[in-house]
Structure formats: structure tokens, C-alpha cells
Amino acid sequence: MAFLAPLFLVGLAALAVPVLVHLIQRERKTPIEFPSLMFVRRIPYQSVQRRRITNWPLFLLRCAAIILIVFAFSRPFLTQTSVQAAIATSGAREVVILLDRSASMGYADTWQRAQAEAVRVIDGLGNGDQATLVLFDRNAEENVRATGDQTRLRAAVEAAELSSGATRYAPALRLAQSVLSRSTLGQKEVVAISDMQRTGWERPEEIQFPEGTTFTPVSVAPVDPKNISVTSVAFNRARFATEERITITAALTNRGPETVSGVPVTLQIDGIQTGSTQVTLPPGVATPVSFPAFTLSQAFARGVVKAGTDPLEADNAFNFVLSPTRPPPVLVVTRDGAGPMESLYLASGLSVGTPPAFQVETMPISKLNASALSRASVVVLSDVTVPGPLGPELRRFVERGGGILSILGSRSGSLDGEGTLLPGTLADPKDAPGGRFETLGVIDFSHEAFELFKTPNSGDFSSVRFFRFRPITPEPSDAVLARFADGTVAMVERKVAGGRVIAFGSTLDGDWNDLVLKPVFVPLLHQITRYLGQVETQPEWQTSGQVVDVTQRVAALTAGGSDQRVTSAVVLSPSGRRTTVGEGGAASSVDVNEQGFYEIRPQGGAASGRPFTLAVNLDAGESDLSAMDAQEFTAGATGRASLIASTVATEVRPEDTERRQSVWWFLLLVGFVLLVAESVLANRLSQKPVVSMPVARA
Amino acid sequence: MTGARFVDPTVLARIGNLDLIARHVVDGFINGLHRAPHFGASIDFAEHRGYVPGDDIRRLDWRLFARTDKFYLKQYEADTNTNFAVLLDISKSMSFAGEGRVSKIEYARYLAACMGYMAHRQRDRCGIVTFDEDIVSYVPPSAKHFDVMLHTLDRAEPVRPGRLRAPLEKIAEHFKRRSVVALISDLYEEPGEIMEAIKPYRHLGNDIMVFHVLDRAELEFPYRESSRFQDLETGEEIPVVPESLLKQYRELIQGHIESIRTKCSEIRVDYTVVDTSRPLDDALFSYMAHRERTMRVR
Fold it and tell me: What's the gap in Å between the CA of B198 and the closest CA on chain A?
């Protein structure tokens, strides 16, 4: 118990009043006349201090009233310890068992020991107790909700399986908090069974268990764990004639305390071992291991790098998917008779990269036809006017998902003769005012084309000088991506069916501006071209727990297949679980939470070639088995370094606690009731017939 | 007036006239006795006994001699014309009165008046001595002094502190004729001192009755509040916590009474504790019983 205004306790000195009243009875002013004091004189005189309290009920009543009133003014409130102690003696328990099933629990027999601990907790449940089993890794789920059925709980624990997920404590603790806050049972307890991985803490979590909750961490962390893991793989692609050769370099980390020699490392591509070696891994250092280059001929080749044979096998393998790189074909169209200098910057800029980012083909406008358009994914029209017959072809090209980048110069005009492709209406070329230059004033960095330059120091567009430009007035439905400083539109986008058209209001030949000489030119050109070509970069692997958007892939499967009846796709997980996605053209995503390879096939249709494949690996943090001790874990979970925790009390101010409890009100009430009782009792005692003082009569 | 003897002393106090009080109390008391197995107050034949030389031949029963030819003497109850004297303590302590009760001196007046009246009715000679630390008034026993006795009782006022031995020794020499002496006092003296005061009367052949008049407050000490207590006679004040000495006080007062009772019985003195909260009959019975014994002459 604590007091909000402890100074009022000084008032307890008032207890002396009833003591004095009862001990120091006041003497009558007039003496009592007595016939003779010869007998009184013989009795030894007893001093005032040795008098005893005669009326104990009245005395205790007065003392109690004073104590209660003084306590009421001192504003007492029960601290968490008091509350916990008060409720710890009785009442059924609400126990939440947090069982860590993250990938790191697969180390040796850690998972079996964790299950045994959970069963032990379940066996300790008494009559009326309830338990909730929460299995957690990155996410937490209520496996068995608040039940006293121990058989069911035990079966759930035994049936639980390890996952490939990373360890995150916060979701589990929040779920426990939610379960306990709903509970009406007197005692609340959280038992966290985990290997206490330090990487499980992302940041200070705000967990507030109900007041009086007992938090018990149960550590099943292995002692001096030895773990070798493949943390990442890098790919070095090289073109050799028409083939692509790939050199794979894996990063291996030894998490154990000692150097490990002769660690076997192997590389498998599509189940065939293509490389192997032995390495020595010093502790705590990432060691690169390279394998001989190999030629990649097919898409979605499944690769696995394996290293070591330590107790945690899950992170000894690293999965990835490789496909031959195919640069998007880009068609650069110039005016007829244009010199090579006119398309130099464009062609060179698009071709830059190892391997080349785009497959660039340059041709004059007169040679542009449907056949050329069918080979390209993006067409760059550099200051040309599209002939009328070619307009519909261009429109169909765009509608099929193609992209057009229209570089507006003095010769530029309508793209399709109807004005449906060009985003806006062109005006005559305009020189910068005063014979000086114009700069870009507003850029929409949220657009995918400029997103690369969003962060500070990622690209300087302010230094680009525009001496001449072609104003364009966009339609309201068009998206303006950039404006000159005077407000004139510099870049605008129009989406037509499945394709995209972007118009740039100046040339890219170095005459009207100096953008082509600036560092931002090539990245910007690549970004715009990728955006227009809707180039999707598929990562070689995913991390367990991620959600992968496969909408486009599913759309390609359902629309591009030979069987038109295929309307959805099936996702096949590494464990063989099937999930149907993309029904009715809905957005599709796959929650990849199993280590291994996911396949996406058309529903009911025959797969042409290899299916689309996703490789999934463990979170790199799971390989770090360094554990926290129980006290540190408790502190992290509850904000207190003790086993019994109540985060409410630590975070709530004493004033709030006192106001919430309002004990003073009851104390004051009882105090006044006692005073009334004291008055009644004292009056009755005073009215009791006592022997009055005698009077002398003559 | 049947039942008057049971009248509460406080009721008697309202009458105010001692003569009237005595008549009412004693008449009722005597009437009550007629129905009780007690001796009567009349002069009557007692028994016969054989003549022995030296006996007064005037007491021979000649009629019995004529029938039996043997000498027998007739024995009668003794002559009742004796002296009755009241020794009344009128010291200041006798003025004490408990709550709702008559004072000790008042009670003593009633008692003395009643006994005087009874003696007067039996043609005894009545007298009274009032004293405190000295003799205040002396009315010698006489058949005509009943009214004077009542007057003296009426005038008696407790003013001064009292002593027993000096005044009683001083007046004892006046009791040369065998008398019945009733000492009415609260006896705040040491038992030995009291006996020393009584003994002279006993040695002179008087029959002594001691009436120890005490208020109930003196017997029970029923006080609660701590106070200063003042001695009525000396004026001395003592702070007293009644609770602390209640038990000891009661033991002391009872010890005092028992001590006096023992010593009185040793010298054949009738001793009666008179509680002023009770009717007068206890004291009167004591007197009558004593009178009965002394009246028998063998």
C-alpha cells in the first residue's frame, strides 16, 4: 500500500487524544465529600499514568475513527504488489501459453523440450483454471482458446509443428494481452516458452498486461549453440554468345564460438550438383564461397546451396530461382534521314548495363510497321510525326500493353491522327524567356518513373537547363509528371487500356536542353522505359513470411495460355498444400511461409514449360541463436525486471491509480460511521445510571 | 399503623416530627411482633423452683405449699423499669448522605427516637448523650425525659469532628445504675480504640448495643470518576481514582466491620451494622432482641 499524500499521516498523532481522554480522566472541580478517608489513606496512591483504560470498545471506536479519517486524507492506494498479493491467494487462473515455433526452435531437441515444458504447464492447471495455447513465430495464432480441457491442450501441443517463420515476440505478447484483458478469472498468467532469441525484439514494444499478471519466461535456449548458415547468394551473369553464364557466390556465416574447418558446401541446380567445395569458417564472420560458372538455359531453374551439418538444418540450405535474363526490346524511332547523332544519347543510354538493360533497335519512322511493333515492348518516338496509317497500329500496340515514349520536338505531331494516344494538345515550340533557360520546377517523385530520385541526393534535376521546349496542354485525365518553372507541362502520362504513353516536352538530342549530359539522364531513361514496358523484376528468392504479389503472373497464366477455360491459378507450397488464387481476375498474393519452392500453375490447365516458381528461405535472423536471459526477456516483455510483472502499474501514475481505486472515499465513510457510533455509544454510557456524588446534609 | 416499620427512611424524613415518626414506626413494629414468635413486653409469671435456705420467704407460693406440702418459690419476669440511654455520635462525618438517601445523622435520629419511644412505652427511663469530640448535650435517663430526648435529637447538628473515647469515658461515670446503652455512631476509629471507649460501660454493668450507622456509599464505594475526596471531619483532600482502590477499600471496610464485630462479641456487646438505605426494623429487631434477653430475671 502507498499513499498519495503521506504527510497527512502525521494526523495519526491525534490518536493520543482518545488515549489521553481514556487515561487522563479529568477530575471534578468540586471535591467529593466523604465521611472519613481513613481507609482511603491506607491504600497506596496510584498516579495518573498507571490508570488503565476502562471502556475498551469506546476507546477502540475512537481510535479506529481517527485512523480511518487520517488514512482517507492520506489518499491510500494499493500498489501492484499489494494487488497481486491480494489476488494471488485465491481464484482460478487464466494462463496463456506462448509456444515459440519459429525456425530457430528446430535446433537439436529444442522444440521437443519446449513441447515438454508446455505440457508441464498444462499438467499444472487446477480445477477452474483455463489455458490458451498461442503458437507464434512472426505471427501469433490462438491454437486453443481459453479452455480447461487439459487433454485437448496436450493434444494441441503435441500436434503443433515447427514453422519456417522468424521469431517476433510482439504479436504473441499482444495476443496474450488481449486474451487476459478479456478474462474474468482472478489470476492471470503468461508463460512464454521460447529459445529467447535476441533477434525477436524489433523495438521496444508497448505491451500492457492487466494488473497483477504473472509473467513467466521459460527458456529452452540451447547452450553454446553451433550453427553454420548460408545467409545470401549473389549472381554474376555474363553473356557468352547467345547464352548466359552465371557465377554463384554464397555467403556463409559461422555463428558458433569456434572456427570450423572442412565445412562441405555444395551447389545444386535443378537437383544436379554443379559445384562443391570445403571451406574453413572463422566464428562470427561471413565467408564468401564461389562456384564455377554454369550456363543457364531454362527459366525457373531451382538452385540450392547447402553448407554444414549442424543441429539447425533449416538454415544450412539456401534456395533460389534463376531464369535467363531477357532485356526488354525497345524500338527507337527517328525521323527519316536523321543522322546517328540524333538518337545517339537515346540508344546509348538504353543500352548501358551489364548485361544490357534493354535490347535497343533504332529505325526511321518510315520503316515502322506492325511487325516491328510486335517485337518491341516500348517504342521511343524521337521528334517524329506518325503517319496516319500507322496510327491504329500504334493504338493496338499500346492497348496490348506496350509503352510509348514520345520525345516532343519541332517535328512532333499526333500519334494516331485522332489524338487519343498523345496525352494532351501540342503547342508551338517555345524558347526560354529572355534568351536564358528554363528549369524543372515541379516533379512528381511519387510516380514510379521518378521514384528512384525520391530520396535526397538521389539525383539533381535543378541543374538541367531547358533552352527550348514544346508546350503541351494535357487533358484532365492525364497525369502530369513534371512541370517547368513557369508552370508549363514538361512530362505527362496517359494510360490507354493496358498500355502507357508518356510525352516529354523537349528533345533528348542535346539541342534543346542539356539533360542528356546530366547524371540523372540514364537512370531516368531506364526508369521511364521500365515503367512503360511494365518490366517486372522477379527476385531470385523470397524470405519466409513475406507476401508476394503474383497478380500479373496469374493474369499471364490465365490470359496467355492456350486453354481459354483457365480462369485461375493454383499455388503449390513446398509441403504440397494447394491454394487457388486469381479467381475472377482478383488480385492475387501468396503468403510464403514455408521454406522451399512454391509453384504457380494454371488451374486445371496444362502447364506449358516450367511453372512459375518462387524460392523461399528462412529469415537470416533465425540463424542468430544468441539468447536473452529470463530477466532480460521479462524486462523486454513487461518493462520490469522481475518475474511478476504488471506493466500497468509501472506506466500509470500513482495519481491515476489512486483515483481509479478511490479507497479514501470508503475510508472516510467508514470513519464517519464510526464517529456516529462513537457518539451514540458515548451518550448511552453517559446516561447510564451511575452513582452520583453524595451531598452532605445537615 | 401496620407496616410503618417497613417504610423507607426517606419517606419518614418527610414527616419531620420525631415523635410522630417514632409512634408510627414503633406501633407498627409492635403490632407486627404480636404476630411473631417473639417475647412480649408484659410482666408475667415465669416458673417455680425449690426453696433453698436464704431465699426470700415472701416469694413462697403458699397455695402450692398447701397442695404439695413443699416449698416452692414463684419466679417472675424482671422489672422493666430500667434506664435506657442513647449515645449519639453527632460528629461531622454523620452528616454524610448518599444519593437519594437520608443522612446518617437523620437515620440515627429516627433510630434513637424509635428506641426511646419503645422504652418510654415500657416505662423505662430514657436519656440521651450527644457527642462529637466532646459531649455536646446530656439528658439523664428519666421517665419524664422522652420529650426532652426528642428535642435534643432534633437539635443535634453535626458540626465538629468527632472522637469516641474521650467523650464516652467522660460521660461513663454518670451511668452508675445498670442501664441499657445504645451507641449510635459511624465508628471511624480503630477497633481497639472503640473497644476502649465501650469497655467502661461494660465494666459498670451496663448492657451495650452498638449501632454502626453507615451509608451504602461507605460500604460499596460506588464512585467512578477520579476526583479529589474530602474528609468531612478533617477537611483533608486526597486525589482518588476510585477504580484503582475500589477492591481494597471494600476489603478494608469489611475488615473493619468484622474486627469490630469480633471484638464486641468478645465483651458481649451487641453489634449491628445499620445501612441507612434500609428500613429501621433491622435495628429495632436488634434492640428488641437485646431487651428481651435483659428482661429475663431468674
Answer: 21
Q: Which of B93, B97, B237 sits opposite A31 (nearest CB)?
A: B237
Please indicate, yes or no, whether residues B153 and B64 belong to a single structural domain of this protein.
Answer: no
Do B67 and B177 share a domain, yes or no? Answer: no
Q: How confident is the model at residue A414 (pLDDT cuts 50, 70, 90)?
A: confident
Fold assignment, A542-620: Immunoglobulin-like (2.60.40)
Q: Which of residues 22-51 of A touch B (CB under 8 A)?
A: 25, 27-28, 31-43, 45-46, 48, 50-51
Rounded distance between C-alpha atoms, residue B42 and residue B33, angstroms: 13
A interface mutation test: which of B92, B240, B258 has the most A CBs within 10 A?
A: B240
Q: What range does the domain containing B57 cover?
A: 45-76
B40 domain residue, yes or no: no
**Contact assignment for B231 to A37 by CB distance below 8 Å:** yes
Provide the domain count of chain B. Answer: 2
**Which amino acid is it at A531?**
Y
Chain B residues near residue A688 by CB distance under 8 angstroms: none
- pLDDT, average across residues A508-535: 90
CA distance A164 to A620: 11
- Do A608 and A88 form a contact (C-beta atoms < 8 A)? no
Instruction: Give the CATH architecture of domain A84-224+626-654.
Output: 3-Layer(aba) Sandwich (3.40)
CATH placement of domain A329-533: 3.40.50.880
Per-residue pLDDT at A327: 81
Question: ipTM of the predicted structure?
Answer: 0.76
Locate the chain B residue with the closest alpha carbon to A40.
B249
User: pLDDT tier at B35 (50, 70, 90 boundaries)?
Assistant: very low
B239 with A45: Cβ contact below 8 A: yes
Contacts of A693 in chain B (CB under 8 A): 99, 223, 227
| pLDDT at position A139 | 87
Contacts of A51 (CB under 8 A, 6+ apart): A23, A24, A25, B226, B241, B243, B244
Q: Which residues in chain B are closer than 8 Å to A690, comparing Cβ atoms?
A: 222, 224
pLDDT tens column, B166-188: 898 888 878 777 788 899 999 99
Residue range A163-216, pLDDT digits in tens = 988 888 888 888 888 888 888 887 888 999 999 888 887 765 577 788 778 888
CB distance B95–A697 less than 8 Å? yes
Place of cell 489455458: A131
Task: Clarify whether residues B192 and B94 are in a common domain.
Answer: yes
**Domain A228-318 falls under CATH 2.60.40.10:** yes
Mean per-residue pLDDT over chain B, rounded: 79
What's the pLDDT at A153? 92
Q: Is the peptide bond before A471 cis (omega within 30 degrees of 0)?
A: no
Q: Please give the Cα distance from A329 to A532 (Å, whole number).
A: 12
Asked whether the beta carbons of A173 and A194 are under 8 A apart, the reply is: no
Give CA separation, A662 vs A78, A212, A213, in Å. 10, 18, 22
In a domain, B281, yes or no: yes
Cβ distance B229 to A693 less than 8 Å, yes or no, reads no
H-type helices in A580-662, by residue range? 630-638, 647-651, 654-661
Q: Is A60 exposed, middle or buried (0-12, 13-18, 19+ CB in 10 A)?
A: middle
Domain A329-533 matches domain A542-620 at the CATH topology level: no
pLDDT of B290: 64
Which parts of A424-497 fold into alpha helices (H)?
none
Minimum distance, in Å, between the CA of residue A65 and any CA atom of chain B: 25
Q: Report the residue of chain B nearest A37, measured CA to CA.
A: B231
Neighbour tally for A271: CB within 10 Å: 8
Q: What is the pLDDT of residues B129-170, one digit of tens each?
A: 999 989 999 998 888 888 899 889 888 889 889 888 889 888
Tell me chain B's radius of gyration from C-alpha atoms: 22
Whether the full predicted model's pTM is greater than 0.80, yes or no, is no
